[in-house]
Amino acid sequence: MRGFGGLSGAISDGEVIAHFGDAFREQRRLADGAALAPLGDRTVIEVAGPERLTWLDSITSQAVGRLAPGESTELLVLDPQGRVEHAAGVFDDGASTWLIADAGDAEALAAWLTRMKFRAQATVDVRADLELVGFLDAGSIAATASAAAFAPNGVPLVWADPWQRISAGGHQYSEVAEHPGADYAWRVAVLTAAGAEDLAAALDRDALAGILAAEALRIAAWRPRWAAEVDDRSLPHESDWIRSAVHLNKGCYRGQETVAKVHNLGHPPRRLAALHLDGSDAVLPQPGDPVFAGDEEVGRLTSVARHHEDGPIALAILSRRAPVGDLVVRSDGVDIAASQQVIVPADAGATADIPRLTRLSRRPSAPDPRSSGVG
């Protein structure tokens, strides 16, 4: 982060600032809306042109055809089998649509969009010249960050994460009474390099937080992201991503058949769970560490953090067969007790009563008068 990486005390890995010296304190201030976090692990893609929204609507999971200037949403790009290939936050300013993607996915997403343009009047550009900061819309820092946001077409570029609630056309599989995402008023402001430098100069150390703080709050909100929860098998149902990134009632798009099938018949092959880890060991396990139920491996960690209130926490993708009770994480040969909170139930879906054909060997010789004609 050019505007923030040179500040005294910033501990960074390339473009990503891990913390500014006190990750726990930064996390508390970020949660209170009193700090912002430079997001060197995200990249902006600008999609311009008069057909940008209808074109994006036709090839992605979200209904964005009528997105109004200043509105935010989220989309997924799925493969023909409904697996997640790309993900991005979406914001439109009336002249361009701005996609906020994980840095490791941005170039591939932009390349895929470029290949899919055909005759659509749209352009796709990775805006590596722009920087991003994240914050919670819960305190004084929100106005400061929003005022610094880039506004090339008169609308400040501030994306509002839709994870706080079920989006129109979406569906939530989690059955908890109070979803932790309801308080996750996450915002991302897009800045020019000059704007980032000015903002960094205007803020004191107490108003800055690193990516460790931002990730801890995300994990506590059960919020999936491409860089962590997605692999080559991921279906949006498995991480409850239909909540914010899939419109179940929109027109045809690649992967829609699988989305509808798994949603209507239920039982996705895997499910996301939240884990509260035993904090007696000073070393955190790592993403990718296996999760066991007894002697059976039932999944892998995808995200891990130390939360300022909850202690060590994690998200894990588990097999549907994994029990709902306590589990064990194995890290470098050490077993760590993990208390599980179910996010996506094993029987998620099955929202419609779909008539099914009987097997040929069991088909009655005459129509059953109680049936609708479908066996």
**Which superfamily, in CATH terms, is the homologous superfamily of the largest domain?**
Probable tRNA modification gtpase trme, domain 1
Structural class: alpha+beta
| Mean of pLDDT | 92
Radius of gyration: 22 Å
Largest sheet: 6 strands, antiparallel, barrel
CATH topology of the largest domain: Gyrase A, domain 2
Would you identify the regions where 5 or more consecutive residues have pLDDT less than 50?
352-375
Number of domains: 2
Query: How many angstroms separate the termini?
Result: 61 Å
Strand content: 25-35%
The CATH architecture designation of the largest domain is: 2-Layer Sandwich
The dominant shape is globular
* CATH class (first level) name of the largest domain: Alpha Beta
> Can you give the helix content as a percent range?
10-25%
Descriptive notes:
- The chain has 375 residues and is of the alpha+beta class.
- 20% of the residues lie in helices and 28% in strands.
- Helix 1 (23-31) packs across helix 6.
- The chain is globular.
- It starts with 10 loop residues before the first strand and ends in a 33-residue tail after the last strand.
- The model is unreliable at 352-375 (pLDDT under 50).
